[in-house]
Each structure stands twice: as C-alpha cells, then as structure tokens.
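**User:** You know discrete backbone vocabularies at least as well as I do. Would you mind producing a protein record, from residues through to fold? Write it directly below this note and I will take it from there.

**Assistant:**
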Amino acid sequence: MLRSFYPNSDILFCGQVYLPSMEAMIIKNVVKLQFMKEAVFDFEWLKVRGRDVEVTFNQFDSLFLYGLPQLTHIWWMVPKEFQGFKNLSWLIIKKCHSLRYLLSPTVVKLLVNLQELGVMDCEAMEEIISMEQDGSKTNVVEEMAMDKIVFSQLRHLNLVDLENLTVFCSGKYECQFPSLNSVVIRNCTEMKNFCSGPICTPKLERENVKIGKQEVWMGDLNTTIQCADSSFIEKDEDEDEDREIQKMRIRMELKMMKMEMKVMEMKMKVQ
C-alpha cells in the first residue's frame, strides 16, 4: 500500500519529490492519512526554493479527492510568494468528512484557471472559503486587507449533500464570478446565505441555477438562497434531481478519457 513518495515517511509530498510532468491527481479511499496536519499539500514540509515546486504544481490540471475521512486540509501554510497551481481547472472533492473548509483567500488567488468546482457529501464542511483554512498567520493578515475574491474562469459550481455548510464565504469580500453559468446547490439544509459581501454573477440565468428541487433565480445568489423555502433545499432522494450532477460526472469522464488518450499518444511517440 502506497503511504508516501518519500522513504520512511507518512508525508505524501515533501521536498525530495518532484513530478514536473504530472497533470492530474486522483486520491481515493485512503482511510488514514498520517502526514502532518492531514494535508495533501503541506508547505511546512515542501521545499519551496527557487522554481522547483512552482514548476511541479503548475502542471496540475485536475485534482480529484474521494473518500479521505481523516483529511482536514488540502493546502496548509502556503507561502505568500508561492505562484503554483495556475493551470488547475478541475477541483472535485467527495466524501472527505473531516474537511471543514476547502480554500483560503490566498489559495483562491492562485487558482486563476479553475473552471469546475464540485464539493459533495462532506459531512463537516462549513464554508468553502475561510481564512482558517490556510494555517498561516501572515496570510490571514493579508487576507483581512483584501476587498474581493475573484473566480475569473469558474463556469460550474456544484455543492451537494453538505449538511453543515452554512455559507460559501463568510468574509466581507466582494465575490466575483464573471464566467459562472451553472450552479447546483442541493441538500445543503443549513445554508441560508451564499456570501456575506456583495456578489457578481453576470452570466447566471434562471435555467442554469438549481437550488434543491427547482430552477430558481431571484437576481443574485444571496437573494435566491434567502428566499428559497425548505422545499428548495430539503433532503431529496428523487433520481430526477441528479441530472446536473450526472452532467458533471459526464464532463469528468470525458476529461479522464482525454487524459488517457494523451497518455497513449505519449507512449506511441516513445515507441
């Protein structure tokens, strides 16, 4: 059983590991994570010197995390000078029941190409964006001075079966989603507001916003969620309500097929 890329260690990634050509990562059904802070990318251990780590993580296109019940952080102690993950376009998280927060504002600034964000069946998830996520006191000070959070390329947002999720972002930031054209929020019974600050979603329309059982749109996500009654967000087992999630899975499968074809092409070139 793979425990680490580094001998005699419980750290998944450390400064001795360089994967300059890795474009996607899938971590699935790892019951016990023992590396420090139970994080995937722990920058207290990563050797951030020169451009090695930046080059490594700038190749990432997709990150899929499934069934990691002990995972408490994805990113931990990200240095303020770090500039990686700029090509990450897919971030899908499912059944990671110890995750309370997903992203910090510092990490959001790095994800300039993120196009698909899906968070599903994570029992402890309270917020998607939180200053408590990163662990760096320096970053928290800078994040408090920020006035907006921008997902410039995000097109699809799916929040499903998050029973403790109360808000996407509780900070007083202006949240900007200039490319967002599809939103699904389902079985998030504690969610009463999308964000605490103003929100800009110029491309969202009624037929592309699904809150619980119905397509509904009141002009902005905050007002839409505030006006939605329990029938929009209650637990629902109707298979017909999974259409948007199925669309996301189809997109993901197509993406994986393209990746497999790319690997085959590379093998043929080597031969």
